[in-house]
Design brief:
heterodimer; A: mainly alpha; two-stranded antiparallel ribbon; two-stranded antiparallel sheet; 15 helices; B: 498 residues; Rossmann fold; 2 domains; six-stranded mixed sheet; 17 helices
Chain lengths: 342, 498
C-alpha cells in the first residue's frame, strides 16, 4: 500500500518555494566542480607562452613523475580530510618507513635473491604504513584524542626515530640492490615512469572507493556530521580508523617508489610532504571541514602545485626561491573562492 | 515604554526567489500578537528583518512612526527590539551566564564584573523556574534548558518589543506554563510581543490578536477571542483542514510483544524502566524534559551505556551495543534533533535516504541509478515536496526534511520504529501528513513508539501512553483514559485516583 498522505496543495506551493530558496544559478555550480582543472589549464597555457619547453612531452613526463609521490599521499589524505580528520605526520612517516626499509633490505642482502629482497622491502613499506595508520586511527577514535594532536606527536616521533636510526646521518641502500630496485622508479611504460602509473592507479582506485562504495559514502557522511552518521547506524570509529590505515598504506607506496630514486634515507627525507599533500587536497576543492571533496580534484591540485614550481624553474619572472610563496597564494586564493560554500 | 511597528510593503528575495511579497501590517503597542503561518510563509524572515538580522529587498519599517533600519541585531537591541531565535544561537563552550551577557558584558573598570552578571543571570533564570547554575557550561544542558536560557537572555536586554519564534518547541507543559506567566508579566509591563508558534492552543491562550501570513503575504488579522483554532488553521493553509488524526485502529490484544524491555537502567538518566510494544501498536512516551525519555531509547540502542536491562525483540533476547546492531535487529530511532542527529543537511537527498541501507545499492559498487530509484519511491510514498532533487537536504522545508528523515530510518525496514518529537518545527499540513504516515506504518504490523511533548499529539495518535518522571516509568495510560490533565498530573507527580 502506498504511503502517500492526503495531498495538501497549498502546503506544496509554499514548501516548494522555500525549498528553492537557497539554490544558485546552475552554471555556477557546474563551473565550481571544474575550478581546479580550469586553473591548471590556465596556468599551463601561461607556462607555454612563457617558455616553449614547458609544453614538451619530456617536461610533462618529468612534472608528472615528480608529482606522483605527493599525489599518491594526497589521495590517501583526501579520505582522511573528507572524513573530518587530518594527518600531519606523513612526511616523517615516509622518512621512517624509508629508513626501516633500507635497513631491512641491507640486512637481507646475500640471504635471498635480490628481487625477493626488494619485494620484501616493498611489502614492508606498505605494512608499516598501514600499522602506523592503524595506530593513528586507534589513538584518535578509541583514545579520543584530536587527530591534529595525535599526528603532531607522531610527526616528531617518526622523524626523531629515523634520525636516531641514521645516527643523525644518512642510511644508504646497499649498492648490490640498485639494479634490482632501480627500475621501480626509473623504469617506464609508454613513455611515463612507473610512479606515474602507480599514481594513476591509486587515484582511480581511490575515486572508485570514495564515490562508488559503502566505505566511501560513510567517509563523506562522517565528515559531513559524525553525530548524524552515528545515529544512522554507521560504524564511525571503524571507518575513521580505515581512513588512516589507507593513508598510511598510500605513504608506504609513495615511499617504496621514492627510495630507489636516491637510494638513501636521511633526516630531511620527506620533509614538508605533509604540507604539500594537504595543500594538494585543499587546492583540489576538498572542504577542510570534511564532508565533501573529490579524488579527481586532489589529482589536479597536486599536478597544479608541481606545474607552478616547474614554470618558476623554467622562467625567470619569479624566482624559484619564491615557489612556496606562490603556492601559498594559490592555496589562499582557492580558499577565498570557496568561502561561500557551506 | 511600548513600541509600535509598521511594516510597509516589505519584500525579500533570496537569489531571485521571493519569500516576502509586499507585506504591510502594524504591530500595536503593548499587545501580544500571534503570528501564524506554515513553514515557508515568511514569518521568520520578516521578524529577522525587523530585528536587524537581514535586510529587506524593498519596503520600510516604521518604529513609533519613524522610518528605522537596523544594520545589525545590536542596533535593534539598542532600540529595544529583541528576537529569540528558533534555532538556538548560543556558544556551547561558554557558561550560561557568559552566554546571557555575550556582547553586553558588564564591566567594573577594565575587568569583567562576573559577580553582578552571575547574579542577574540567576535572577532571570529564576523567573523561568530554571534551577541550573549560571556557571554551567552550555553544552551540558539539554535542548529545552538551552531554549529557556535564550528566553532568559532576551529578558536581560530590556526589550520593548520581544519576538519569540517557536519558543516552546522543545519545552514541556510545565515549562510552557512558566513561559506564559512571563509573557503575561511582560505584557503587563507594556512590552509589545510577537509570538510565533505552530501550537494553536498556546496562541489561543496567550495572544490577544492573530496575524496570519501565507506564501510571503499578509493574509488576515483578527482578535484571538473571535478566531477559533480551526479558523486559524484554515487561514494558514488557505483551505479547510479535515481531521488532524487518523481514526485509531484496533490492535490484536493477544499478539505477542514485538519489543519487551525489562529493568533497563541508564546511569544518571533512567532507572529500571520496563515496557512492552505489540505489533501494530503506536505507543506514546510522555514526560517533562529531563524525565529520561530520549535517554531511555538512546540507551536502548547502545548510544549510552546501560548498567542493567533485558531486551527482547520478537521473543528473542538481543544485545544491542550500537545503532548498527539495533538496525540489524529491526529497530531504528529517529532523534529529536533533526539537523544535528537526524539528517546530513549538507548532503544531497539520495545520500541521506540510502545511508542506513547502503548495502542494498552496492553490488559491490554503489549504483547511482538504484539510489535515485529509491529516492523517487520515497518522494512518492512519503509525499516529500522537493524543488531540486540534487540539492542538499537543508534546502527542504522543516516538514519535508522530517519526511525525508522518516523515510531514511525506514530504509532498513525496521519492525520497530522510534520517533522522538516527530513533528517539532513542522507546519500543520505536514504534521497531519506525518500522523497519517505513522498510522499506516503501524497498520503494516510494525511497532511504533512516539516520544512527544505535545500532549494533543500523543492523545490523538497513540494506543497507550507511558509517562516517565525522573527517569522512571510512572504510569501507562490506555487510550480510553487519555487526557491532558491525567498526563500532566502523572508527569509532574500530582496524580491522584478519583
Amino acid at each position: 500500500m502506498p504511503l502517500a498522505p492526503t495531498p495538501t496543495t497549498e502546503t506544496q506551493a509554499s514548501e516548494l518555494r522555500s525549498g528553492a530558496a537557497p539554490s544558485r544559478p546552475a552554471w555556477r555550480l557546474r563551473l565550481h566542480g571544474y575550478g581546479p582543472l580550469l586553473g591548471l589549464v590556465l596556468v599551463s597555457l601561461g607556462g607555454m607562452l612563457l617558455n616553449p619547453d614547458f609544453g614538451t612531452w619530456d617536461n610533462w613526463a618529468n612534472v608528472l613523475s615528480r608529482t606522483s609521490f605527493i599525489g599518491i599521499i594526497a589521495v590517501g589524505m583526501s579520505f582522511v580530510i573528507i572524513c573530518g580528520g587530518i594527518d600531519l605526520s606523513v612526511g616523517s612517516m615516509a622518512a621512517l618507513i624509508a629508513g626501516g626499509q633500507i635497513l631491512l633490505m641491507n640486512s637481507l642482502v646475500g640471504h635471498a635473491a635480490s628481487f625477493l629482497v626488494v619485494a620484501a622491502g616493498m611489502a614492508f613499506c606498505v605494512v608499516m604504513g598501514g600499522l602506523f595508520g592503524l595506530a593513528h586511527g586507534l589513538l584518535i577514535t578509541k583514545g579520543r584524542i584530536e587527530p591534529f594532536i595525535v599526528t603532531l606527536g607522531t610527526l616528531g616521533i617518526f622523524r626523531a626515530c629515523l634520525t636516531w636510526l641514521a645516527n643523525g646521518g644518512t642510511i644508504t641502500l646497499d649498492n648490490g640492490l640498485a639494479d634490482a630496485y632501480g627500475p621501480i622508479y626509473y623504469g617506464s611504460l609508454l613513455g611515463l615512469q612507473i610512479p606515474v602509473w602507480i599514481f594513476a592507479a591509486t587515484a582511480l582506485v581511490g575515486a572508485l572507493l570514495l564515490n562508488r562504495t559503502v566505505f566511501g559514502r560513510h567517509v563523506q557522511a562522517i565528515g559531513s556530521n559524525d553525530q548524524v552518521a552515528r545515529y544512522a547506524a554507521v560504524d564511525v570509529d571503524l571507518v575513521k580508523i580505515l581512513t588512516y590505515v589507507l593513508l598510511g598504506m598510500c605513504v608506504g607506496v609513495a615511499t617504496l617508489l621514492y627510495v630507489p630514486r636516491l637510494g638513501s634515507a636521511s633526516p630531511t627525507t620527506g620533509l614538508l610532504w605533509e604540507l604539500e599533500a594537504i595543500a594538494a587536497v585543499i587546492v583540489g576543492g576538498t572542504s577542510f571541514r570534511g564532508g565533501e571533496g573529490s579524488i579527481a580534484g586532489t589529482v589536479v591540485g597536486a599536478i597544479l602545485l608541481s606545474v607552478i614550481a616547474n614554470i618558476l624553474n623554467l622562467t625567470s619572472i619569479i624566482s624559484i626561491y619564491l615557489n612556496a610563496a606562490v603556492q601559498g597564494c594559490v592555496i589562499i586564493a582557492v580558499a577565498f573562492l570557496q568561502r561561500h560554500r557551506r | 515604554m511600548s513600541l509600535s511597528v509598521s511594516f510597509e510593503n516589505i519584500t525579500k528575495e533570496f537569489d531571485a526567489v521571493r519569500v516576502l511579497n509586499g507585506v504591510s501590517f502594524d504591530l500595536v503597542p503593548g499587545r501580544v500578537h500571534g503570528l501564524l503561518g506554515e513553514n515557508g510563509a515568511g514569518k521568520s524572515t520578516l521578524m529577522k528583518i525587523l530585528a536587524g538580522y537581514q535586510d529587506a529587498t524593498s519596503g520600510v519599517i516604521r518604529i513609533d512612526g519613524a522610518v528605522r533600519h537596523f544594520g545589525n541585531s545590536r542596533e535593534a537591541e539598542r532600540a529595544g527590539v529583541v528576537l529569540i531565535h528558533q534555532e538556538l544561537n548560543l556558544a556551547e563552550d561558554l557558561t550560561v551566564a557568559q552566554n546571557m551577557f555575550l556582547g553586553h558584558e558588564l564591566r567594573r573598570g577594565w575587568l569583567l564584573d562576573e559577580r553582578t552578571m552571575r547574579a542577574q543571570a540567576r535572577g532571570a533564570l529564576d523567573q523561568l523556574g530554571l534551577t541550573i547554575d549560571p556557571d554551567t557550561k552550555l553544552r551540558e544542558l539539554i535542548v529545552a534548558e538551552k531554549q529557556l536560557v535564550e528566553i532568559a537572555k532576551a529578558q536581560l536586554r530590556q526589550a520593548r518589543l520581544l519576538i519569540m519564534d517557536e519558543p516552546t518547541a522543545s519545552l514541556t507543559p510545565a515549562e510552557c506554563e512558566r513561559l506564559f506567566a512571563l509573557v503575561e508579566r511582560l505584557r503587563a509591563a507594556g512590552v509589545t510581543i510577537v509570538y510565533i508558534s505552530h501550537k494553536l492552543d498556546e496562541v489561543e491562550r496567550i495572544t490577544e490578536e492573530v496575524i496570519v501570513m501565507r506564501d510571503g503575504r499578509f493574509i488576515a488579522r483578527a482578535p484571538t477571542s473571535d478566531t477559533p483554532r480551526q479558523r486559524m488553521a484554515d487561514l494558514m493553509v488557505g483551505r479547510t483542514l479535515t481531521d488532524m488524526f487518523p481514526p485509531k485502529r484496533q490492535i490484536e490484544a493477544s499478539g505477542a510483544p514485538l519489543l519487551k524491555v525489562a529493568g533497563l537502567t541508564v546511569p544518571g538518566w533512567v532507572d529500571n524502566a520496563s515496557f512492552e510494544l505489540r505489533p501494530g501498536e503506536i505507543l506514546g512516551f510522555a514526560g517533562l524534559v529531563g524525565a529520561g525519555r530520549t535517554e531511555l531509547f538512546e540507551g536502548l540502542i547502545g548510544l549510552r551505556p546501560r548498567s542493567a536491562g533485558r531486551i527482547e525483540i520478537g521473543g528473542r533476547q538481543v544485545r544491542l551495543r550500537s545503532p548498527r546492531q539495533a538496525a540489524r535487529r529491526g529497530l531504528t530511532y529517529l532523534s529529536e534533533d533533526r539537523k544535528g542527529r537526524g539528517l546530513h543537511v549538507r548532503l544531497r537527498l539520495s545520500y541521506n535516504l540510502t545511508l542506513m541501507d547502503l548495502a542494498r545499492h552496492a553490488h559491490p559498487l554503489l549504483s547511482t541509478a538504484s539510489e535515485e530509484r529509491a529516492l523517487s519511491t520515497a518522494i512518492a510514498e512519503f509525499g516529500i515536496r522537493t524543488g531540486d532533487r540534487d540539492a542538499p537536504a537543508a534546502s527542504l522545508s522543516g516538514g519535508n526534511q522530517q519526511k525525508l528523515a522518516i523515510a531514511k530510518f525506514l530504509q532498513p525496514e525496521p519492525r520497530i520504529f522510534v520517533l522522538d518529537e516527530p513533528t517539532r518545527g513542522v507546519d500543520v499540513g505536514a504534521k497531519r501528513d506525518i500522523y497519517f504516515l505513522i498510522d499506516r506504518l503501524a497498520a503494516q504490523g510494525r511497532g511504533l513508539i512516539v516520544i512527544s511533548s505535545e500532549l494533543v499529539e500523543l492523545i490523538g495518535l497513540c494506543h497507550r501512553v507511558i509517562v516517565m518522571r525522573g527517569g522512571s516509568v510512572v504510569a501507562t495510560v490506555a487510550a480510553e483514559n487519555l487526557n491532558e490533565e491525567a498526563l500532566i498530573a502523572h508527569a509532574i507527580g500530582t496524580y491522584t485516583h478519583h
